[in-house]
Amino acid sequence: MPKDAASPLDALLEVVRKVFEQRGKWPTRQYVQAVLDQDYHLDLDDVLEAAPRSLVYSTGTQEGSDVTLTVAGLAAAGDSEDVQRFVEALRWCVAEQMGFRPADPGKTEQLRLEAEQFRSEWTSRGPTVTATEMAKLRAMLTTEGIYSSIGGEGDSWTVTLDRRSVYPYRNVETTEDYLAVKEASTATPTEQVPQIEPLAYEPPEAVSPSQLSLDELPAKVREACSILFLDGHFAQGVAEAAKVMRDVLREASGLNLDGDQLAGKALNPDNPLIVLGDLSTETGKSRQRGVMLIAQGIFGAVRNPLAHHRIVLRPAEARQMVAMIAFVVEAVEARQM
Question: Is 190 domain-assigned?
Answer without folding.
Answer: no
